[in-house]
Amino acid sequence: MNYRNLGNTGLKLSEVALGSWVTDLKDSNAQAVARDVVNAAFDAGVNFFDCADAYSGGEAERFLGRVLKEHRRSEYVVSTKVFFPMGRGANEWGLSRKHIVEQLDRSLKNLGLDYVDLYFCHRFDPTTPIEETLAVLSDMVRAGKVLYYGVSEWTPVQITEAVHLAKENCFYPLAAVQPQYNMVDRYIEDEIMGLAARYGFGITPFSPLAQGLLTGKYRKGMPLPAGSRATWQADRQINNLLTDANLEKVEKLLAVADKTGVPLSVLALAWILRKREITSVITGASKVSQLCSNVAASGTQLSAAVLDEIEEILDYHPFVRRIG
After folding, report:
1. What Å distances lie between residue 90 and 84, 127, 135, CA to CA?
2. C-alpha R_g of the chain
3. What is the pLDDT of residues 231-282, one digit of tens each?
4. Positive or negative CA dihedral for 173, 78, 202, 184?
5. Which comes out higher in pLDDT, residue 70 or 232?
6. pLDDT-derived band of residue 92, with 50, 70 and 90 as boundaries?
7. Reported confidence tier of residue 216, pLDDT bands at 50, 70, 90
8. What percentage of the chain reaches a pLDDT higher than 70?
9. Do the Cβ atoms of 204 and 5 come closer than 8 Å?
10. How far is Cα 57 from Cα 59, in angstroms, rounded to an integer?
11. Residue 250 and residue 241: Cα distance in Å, rounded?
12. Could you tell me which of 222, 131, 233, 123 has the C-alpha nearest to residue 178?
């Protein structure tokens, strides 16, 4: 496993991380498998574990906390997030001082930790001034409950405003951004990567395999694999990606992966890690074999010829509006 610094900070993250979004915890057998995946990640050199207060209603944090107790605190980096409703009250969601303080304490209790290494604002809260959010995050860093903070799914304008407001008010700076990024969703290349290079924050993208589209399990003209995410995911995110155009790209990418001698998932993750602005890719794994395949992407170098072939297949055209 290779490690990269989180932007301009001294914090080092494994190039491949393990996320908890789709971790199956429905029964003791599922939890045993999930525990095996986390421990296999440790064995493979993964040191970054991502979670959120809203995952499984807090159970994902509690489960991760129980497994992490088996390892030294200095071995791992934990992130969690805040924003989504955790109750029916008017103040039980968002990025207000009240909700962040209360929810961070709940997350720390769930995880069984004194502090989290990374704390993300899961979404942008238009009902709370950014200054209020940044002030309380900076206070949590000063109090030792958070070491670094970041945002997820904020626009380039919102990120830029946060960076400048933090500097103007002498708050602790934004250290990370967690957007979606993969071969079929490349919007962060247009502006956010440039902001990362300019302002020194790291990028830790989620959904690097596009909900499983880029594993090769979904094929054009073939039925959905039994038990796959497309057969049960409530919000149907993967189903919306299963277009003819995307599936045609998958067929071509599978041929490239075969010539390169790696699974498509490794090709897709290594393609993301080609960018130095990326610190770590947050992957999911429902079995140990998936985890082992994902971690193989760390250190995998794709030749210029392979990258050119991938670009031709993806045929990405950034949207640029010229003014004047």
Report:
1. 12, 12, 21
2. 19
3. 555 556 777 788 889 999 999 999 999 999 999 999 999 999 999 999 999 9
4. negative
5. 70
6. very high
7. confident
8. 93
9. no
10. 6
11. 11
12. 123
39 or 211, which is more confident?
39
Band of residue 320 on the pLDDT scale cut at 50, 70, 90 = low
Q: Tokens for 102?
A: 């209360």
Q: Which long-range contacts (CB under 8 A, 24 or more apart) does 68-71 make?
A: 68/38, 68/111, 68/112, 68/113, 69/112, 70/39, 71/42
Query: What amino acid positions are annotated as catalytic residues?
Result: 55
| Cα 202 versus chain centre, distance | 12
Question: Per-residue pLDDT for 304 more than 80?
Answer: yes
Domain coordinates of the chain in residue numbers? 3-213+275-299
Residue 41 CA to residue 39 CA, distance in Å, equals 5
Instruction: List C-alpha distances in Å: 77 to 11, 16, 50, 182, 237.
Output: 9, 12, 8, 23, 28
Quote helix, strand, coil % in the chain, to nearest 5: 45, 15, 40
Residue 154: closest CA among 128, 188, 127: 188
Report the C-alpha gap between 252 and 231 in whole angstroms: 24
Alpha-carbon gap, residue 41 to 17, rounded angstroms = 8
Torsion of CA 154, 156, 162, 163, to 10 degrees: 130
CA distances for 64 relative to 16, 70, 87, 140, angstroms: 17, 10, 22, 22
pLDDT bucket at 30, cuts 50 / 70 / 90: confident
Give, in words, the CATH class of 3-213+275-299. alpha beta
In the 8-state DSSP scheme, what is residue 79? Answer: E
Classified as helix, coil or strand, 3 is: strand
